[in-house]
Specification:
Elements (H helix, E strand, L loop, with lengths): L1 E5 L4 E5 L3 H7 L2 H12 L13 E4 L14 E6 L6 E6 L3 H7 L4 E5 L6 E6 L2 E6 L8 H11 L4 E4 L2 H4 L7 E3 L3 E3 L4 H7 L2 E6 L10 H15 L3 H10 L3 H8 L19 H5 L2 E5 L9 E6 L2 E4 L3 H7 L8 H14 L3 H13 L8 H13 L4 H4 L3 H8 L7 E2 L2 E2 L9 H9 L12 H6 L4 E2 L8 H11 L1 H6 L15 H8 L2 E2 L1 H7 L5 H8 L1 H11 L5 H21 L18 H12 L9 H6 L7
Parallel strand pairs: 1-6, 7-12, 18-19
Antiparallel strand pairs: 1-2, 3-4, 3-6, 4-5, 7-8, 9-10, 9-12, 10-11, 13-14, 14-15, 16-17
Helix pairs in contact: 2-25, 7-24, 11-13, 12-14, 17-19, 19-25, 19-26
């Protein structure tokens, strides 16, 4: 069941998708793309009451499937002005589905600060000025005490002040962090969404689903990544690998290696607690206790951008900076990029521990020079006359993979429909992590375009089911650990990998490899899918998102990186990328491509 909630009128009604659309677009990102493309008016201000904020789940969310606890948030971004999606783990998505709701479509604006409460099958908008001005920790604690057994998604002061890097926080340290989704929630005067689960999920074939889910879970336990690295270290175990591959963001992305960088073991010393998202055994959510207070230990992205990128080598400052972003409700990726620009401009000293923490607070509250930073990277570049200092693609700051030594990641930052993003075309697997193989030359363009395009289409399915992106790592469990360790040392020309995508048996082989996922999709929905159809869906979704962005004014010269990275010949790769996508020289999908993908309506 989907619910459409009009905050203007305080009205809730069911929203129905055609069965054919539900079958084709599955859920999550694919379905949200379809909805926003056809239902959001061209040219609306992202922070106006006319924007819509979607919380969608997918058919695997809330089930017994390992890694099925995520929820997607979708809207028009106030940071980029384009399509955006952001995902949060924890319990919220699972609780939403178990409350009998597949997705929320939130429109309008409440007249006063309010909370949305979903309890006993009813939805109620409750005016609540009391929590406005509170951070996400205090808000969560208060609401969990008031609504026993609930899950909360809320904004902090950054969202209330419509800071463009504002995020939505759940479980205190799980975040739909990127692209200003928290600012959109704040613009609607919506402080929190509270969910009380009540239902057991109804699946098409529950018995066989659970059998297949058990098999998949056993496979994940054979994966070194899911059974050892993540449970022991969380995502910061990436840090040492990326630094070794010389692809770390250092000194606002001017360098690629930091000998003095905070290491995974430095954070391990402080990790006293571990938490899991719904139906997951990885326990990658690590917590520290410092001076009697609990802090969230940063993920890899946060570690790179609030650590080496700022020449911050103090572990406690890193932990406190990350935790402060969570409390205020801000994206650590964009904050790290903003702070890097401020330091390179000379406004803050490199590695200044006090200034890092003070500036984070001021960005959230839009105070002083941080009023400029709160407007995002592009506005900062304009107001400071400092385009060469800013690190972004389409206005979104870079994640913690430095494209100077990862050309494939650079291309995806440039072409991604959300702006710079790492998880929608994850070339870092080959270029920065060596999982399962390492690229032989990270400064080569060979094979990059084909692989970026494929990964962009392929990964859409995981954001539509919705399933944690770590779950495909389960398939490394098919290799005995000594073999896996050996394979990681192999360096391969990515052109050969790209060539392998053209082999006729590639999709039948993928059907076999991902058979558990295909079965779970069938047992949950009653609809049969194969990998070729899912990758084709990914291509259709990417084209719909492209059309959305073109409608909002996207120009082909925005498919590039900021001037700092002009030595990487991104335009040359983009030209090839357009051709491979079936787009014209301006990056517009051709009529032939739209006909092929059965995209009938062009807006």
């Amino acid at each position: 069941m989907f619910l459409k909630i009009d905050l203007n009128a305080g009205r809730v009604r069911k929203y129905t998708f055609d069965k054919k659309i539900l079958k084709e677009f599955i859920g999550g990102e694919a379905l949200a793309t379809y909805y926003l493309y056809y239902n959001l008016k061209k040219g609306i201000n992202p922070l106006s009451r006319n924007n819509q904020l979607l919380f969608f789940t997918g058919p695997l969310v809330g089930t017994s499937c390992q890694g099925s606890g995520k929820c997607g948030v979708y809207t028009k971004s106030p940071l980029t002005n384009y399509w955006c999606a952001s995902y949060m783990g924890g319990m919220f998505g699972a609780y939403l589905r178990r409350a009998g709701i597949t997705g929320l479509i939130i429109t309008g604006k409440s007249r006063q600060p309010a909370n949305l409460v979903i309890k006993d099958g009813k939805v109620e908008l409750i005016i609540s000025k009391k929590l406005w001005g509170k951070d996400t920790n205090d808000t969560t604690d208060y609401l969990k005490k008031k609504y026993k057994g609930c899950s909360v998604a809320c904004i902090g002061q950054a969202g209330e002040n419509k800071t463009l890097c504002a995020s939505i926080i759940t479980n205190k340290h799980r975040a739909a962090a990127r692209y200003g989704v928290g600012a959109v929630m704040g613009s609607k005067n919506l402080k929190a969404v509270i969910i009380m689960p009540m239902n057991k999920l109804k699946l098409f074939d529950e018995e066989n689903f659970n059998k297949t889910s058990d098999n998949f879970r056993k496979l994940t336990q054979k994966s070194t990544i899911l059974s050892k690295e993540l449970p022991e270290h969380g995502t910061p175990f990436f840090l040492d690998k990326v630094n070794k591959h010389n692809a770390l963001p250092v000194k606002n992305f001017t360098l690629t290696h930091d000998e003095d960088s905070i290491k995974s073991k430095d954070l391990d010393k402080y990790a006293e607690k571990s938490y899991s998202c719904f139906a997951c055994t990885a326990k990658c959510d690590k917590r520290a206790v410092i001076d009697g207070k609990e802090y969230g230990i940063p993920e890899y992205e946060s570690t790179g951008l609030l650590g080496s990128n700022l020449l911050n080598h103090d572990t406690i400052t890193l932990i406190k900076a990350n935790d402060l972003c969570d409390k205020l409700g801000m994206d650590t990726i964009d904050v790290g990029n903003l702070l890097g620009a401020a330091m390179e401009s000379g406004r803050i000293k490199w590695g200044d521990k006090k200034a890092i923490l003070d500036t984070i607070k001021k960005i959230a509250y839009r105070e002083g020079i941080e009023e400029t930073l709160s407007k995002g990277l592009i506005k900062t570049a304009e107001e400071w006359h400092a385009k060469n200092l800013i690190v972004h693609a389409k206005g979104a700051g870079f994640p913690s993979y430095n494209p100077f030594n990862a050309y494939g990641m650079g291309l995806h930052y440039a072409t991604g429909n959300r702006g710079a993003n790492h998880l929608t075309g994850y070339m870092a697997l080959f270029e920065c992590l060596g999982l399962p193989i390492s690229a032989s030359n990270n400064k080569s363009t060979h094979g990059r375009v084909e692989l970026v395009k494929f990964l962009e289409d392929f990964l859409i399915m995981f954001d539509s089911m919705i399933l944690c992106k770590f779950m495909p790592a389960a398939y490394t469990g098919l290799m005995p650990e000594p073999v896996f360790n050996f394979v990681q040392k192999i360096k391969v020309d990515l052109g050969l990998v790209a060539l392998g995508l053209k082999i006729p048996v590639i999709y039948p082989a993928m059907d076999y490899l991902f058979s558990d996922l295909l079965k779970m999709l069938y047992y949950s929905t009653g609809n049969k899918y194969n990998m070729k159809s899912l990758v084709l869906l990914g291509e259709k979704v990417n084209n719909l998102q492209r059309l959305f962005n073109l409608r909002e004014g996207l120009k082909s010269d925005e498919d590039n990186l900021s001037p700092k990275f002009k030595s990487i010949n991104i335009p040359l790769m983009v030209k090839k990328y357009y051709k491979l996508r079936g787009w014209d020289e301006n990056g517009v999908p051709t009529r032939e491509k739209l006909k092929e993908l059965k995209i009938k309506k062009i807006i």
